[in-house]
Amino acid sequence: MSADTATETAAERGATETAPGRGAAKVIADDAEALAVATALADEFRAGAADRDAERRLPRAELDRLSGSGLLAVTVPAGHGGADVTQETLAEIFRLLASADASLAQIPQSHFVYVNVIRRQGTAEQQAFFFGEVLAGRRFGNAQSEAGTKHVQDIRTRLARQPDGSYVLTGVKQYSTGALFADWIPVLARTEDDTLHVAYVPRDAEGLTVVDDWDGMGQRTTASGTVRLDAVSVPADRVLPHHLTFQGPQLHGAVAQLLHAAIDAGIAAGALSEAVDFVRTKSRPWFESGFETAAEDPLLIQRFGELAVQVRATEALLGAAARAVDTARAGLTGDSAAEASVAVAAAKAHAAATAVEVSGALFEVSGTRSALNSLNLHRHWRDARTHTLHDPARWKIQHIGRYVLNGTPPPRHGLL
């Protein structure tokens, strides 16, 4: 489809976008291979990132490469044939991809979140089926957030149970990152008793429409548009009881937020790298510096040092948070879950501030020419400013403060 706003129905899509048409997906063996594949793909995706953003050219081919690479299946449990990589590895995968193209890195974030839901709440039969889909290269999107409600957890999409045990799904979702490119769309909805469930719906289901109406200033190619659900039939074995996730210690929110933090860290690293390259190759020295090149200017050197400290601190916090999640996964208790959640909150708050600061400082250190629209260096700041609006860092700081000062464990609402 074109980059313009469009609606795709099942009839219009045809069969060409199914996973079989993409070819068989590789199965990654371990963490080391996953990181090597992510590094290679990041290098590949970096080359066209600026043009894709400028033209709002949706990254279908790149996502097919991602599916075929096996990276989307790296968290599938070993018992089901996956690499079951650590969260530290997963966070680094996202950081690497985001350093190359923040929009592209954002698209599979929900994929891994909803793979995690299956791991936590799926029956043995559901796990066998869906993990098999993921290993085959199928992609999960998301239909989670809603506009016009009281707050982010005021979910009004409904799953109505039918006499035969199946469900009918009705509602409208916004900010549905990944849905346009998905094979399956996990939909967050409430049943008659108001409990939260996730319905896994095929992308071509009758009554499901994905509208490419995303017009954000940043993350332009995520296609985070609208999903409309008009009496969509859902078999009972495609519905998972997500509300049970929050009835005890859980890492659902920590895992989701860890990936957001990794994306912010990647944006910061990518912006710093672009600034370094620009100053080394394109910037002129300020006449008062007395040096032949801008890279010799001691004031610029000082600023680059400050920015590098910020980026390194963010990456250190990200690694520490990921290891805290891995530790909690190995022995999940209320205390270990709280430690992981707080560590991730600290990493996310720091990464958000760093991404915005470094992507803005790119222009400060690079000078007037860097503001040329044709260079599209502003995509880093636009991506940072847009992505960091997902949830307010100020509330993360509140929960960290309450935990440190009063020992109050963070809430189990899935957003921390």
UniProtKB/TrEMBL annotation:
One Pfam family recorded for the sequence: Acyl-CoA_dh_M
Single GO term (MF): flavin adenine dinucleotide binding
Is Oxidoreductase included in the keywords of this UniProt record?
Answer: yes
Task: State whether keyword Flavoprotein applies.
Answer: yes
Q: Where is this region: Disordered?
A: 1-24
InterPro entries membership: Acyl-CoA_dehydrogenase, Acyl-CoA_DH_C, Acyl-CoA_Oxase/DH_mid-dom, Acyl-CoA_Oxase/DH_mid-dom_sf, AcylCo_DH-like_C, AcylCoA_DH/ox_N, AcylCoA_DH/ox_N_sf, AcylCoA_DH/oxidase_NM_dom_sf
- Give the Acyl-CoA oxidase/dehydrogenase middle domain ranges: 150-232
**Stretches assigned to coiled coil:** none
Per UniProt, residues of the Acyl-CoA dehydrogenase/oxidase N-terminal domain are: 37-137
Q: What is this protein called?
A: SfnB family sulfur acquisition oxidoreductase
